[in-house]
Amino acid sequence: MKLVNIADEGAKYKWQLYDLYDKAFPEQEKKPLHVMEKLVADGKMEMLAMVDEDEFAGLAINLIDAEQDRALLDYYAIAPEKRNSGYGSMGLEALLKKFKNHKYIFEIETQDEKAENAEERKRRKAFYLRNGLRETGLFVNVYDTDFEILTPDGELTFWEYVDFLREVMYEEYVQILRPTLIAMKKK
Questions:
Q1: What Gene Ontology molecular function terms does this protein carry (predicted)?
Q2: How far is CA 186 from CA 132, 136, 146, 155, in A?
Q3: Topology classification of domain 1-100
Q4: What is the pLDDT of residues 93-117, one digit of tens each?
Q5: Verdict on whether the full-model pTM lies above 0.85
Q6: CA dihedral 29, 34, 40, 43 (to 10 degrees)
Q7: 20 to 30 Å CA-CA from 17: which of 10, 59, 123, 183?
């Protein structure tokens, strides 16, 4: 599995990435493409096509703080025709390798038995834990959505998280996101 940046050598996968982004995420969770393209131009985001033998397999969109070696997986999706074939694990393995010297942050929806996608949330968390991520004990609300934060080493404070958002996002966007600490559980 190769990770190819659509801003340069992966340009031929740009429209497949945009199409999957449009279809894979709920409207309220998507950033406008013009905001994302500005973040890319400013070096604060990268859009990666996951490619297997020149075939588009999925996308990984990361927020990047290159100065402090920090990154956040903002969006991750496998193309519908490639799902349930190991591509999710292969892509995550490639990402963890790429960001092995970074503080790499993952936001997943909190576990909620009453949520209409409760089973999907449970599977998603199990997938990330099975593939090497660890719980930080940190639960936040961002943009009216409750998230649990995972990292490869299980270490992150709320203030490190907020500082990261402030560093990579424009202040007016951080004001819209309104990061709030919900809970900090001991591991």
A1: acyltransferase activity, transferring groups other than amino-acyl groups
A2: 19, 8, 18, 11
A3: Aminopeptidase (3.40.630)
A4: 999 999 999 999 999 999 999 988 8
A5: yes
A6: -100
A7: 123
